[in-house]
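It would be a great kindness if you could assist me with a short task in structural biology. The full record is reproduced below for your convenience:
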Amino acid sequence: MDIEVKAPSFPESVADGSILSWHKQPGDKVAKNEVLVDVETDKVMFEVPALTTGVLKKIVAKVGDTVVSQQVLAIIDDDVEKSGEETGQVSKLDSSPGNREAKKNNLPNQNQVNVSIAPAANKLIAEHQLDSSKIIGSGKGNRILKEDVLNAMHRKDELPEVVLPVGNKLEDKVGDSLSQSVDAFREKRVPMTRLRARIAERLVEVQQNAAILTTFNEINMQPVMDLRQRYRDVFEKTHGVRLGFMSFFVKAAVDALKHFPVVNASIDGSDIVYHNYFDIGIAVSSPRGLVVPVLRSAETLKMAEIERGINDYAAKAKQSSLSLEDINGGTFTITNGGVFGSLLSTPILNPPQSAILGMHKIEQRPIVENGEIVARPMMYLALSYDHRMIDGQEAVQFLVVIKNLLEDPARMLLEV
């Protein structure tokens, strides 16, 4: 019996999605609850599983197609006996004399049907516009693997065929052929992912609609580094999570936001909305681009809970498994360009928020302490803010509060 595979029911804030990749191809066996296809929206990615065991009979929505909630994406045949008969027919075609000869000579099987392609291989084929019928699959059932595509791209017989006229030098023609092949791979054009397109749209929107200004300060990180070094092992043993720098910054940011509520506010039309909670967004990188999951009610979290939450979000981002609940909302954002080596930058607002804190690389620099020049681990901090509602004085004082707290971290524990 044919079973329809449908797109998930998108929430109200998501109108539609795009087919990002298929993990199975027509003719492949699928198990119940096995992920078949990834559907990308402008916020998160949904994994669509198989509702039954069977054989993928047909793909209705191809990679790149736009789909809406509950749209049919594919058909699964859950009749095992029928699927077995169809598989047997494919095997007969593979065992035909012509195809046996093609396989013997390492040539593509022209009569082959429903040969599956691994997702990584399919991506390479699409990116480089290759002809899959000319690629020999080395996987089970002649499945085309990523290494098969890479081998095909570098095989001599995949270069454009050259007919050598009498009197021409062989090396010249081969050189021309190689040059043509290299030129074909010098550039490629790929469409933006929905997430990247949405990021671009929001960044342009905030640049046009907000009066963004950035103020800077620098922090001596020695006290935090000493405290972290002193309690790192016992902290990890007690809480089962490593003590990083981010929990110190989240704690300091929440304290500073309490002193300056306007930095935690947002603009709605002609109104300023003050938030009496502190949902702190933590910018993390993912294979699909920058995402900002949110630590809810960060003012109630202990440092171990903050570190654990950040680690969980980082793992989810790496696996592209963040949910809408993970990334929706937020009243203030912290981004750490220092992990990539950034010494100084001006972070851009994450609308509708009105401010964002940028951390940077810790670097030994000379400073003056008690009239003497000494080297200390210093970090530049940047606060970008919407000048329509936040005055420069408030922005500068906000950073000063964070600086004072981090240069004397005991103040955060004593709340002074």
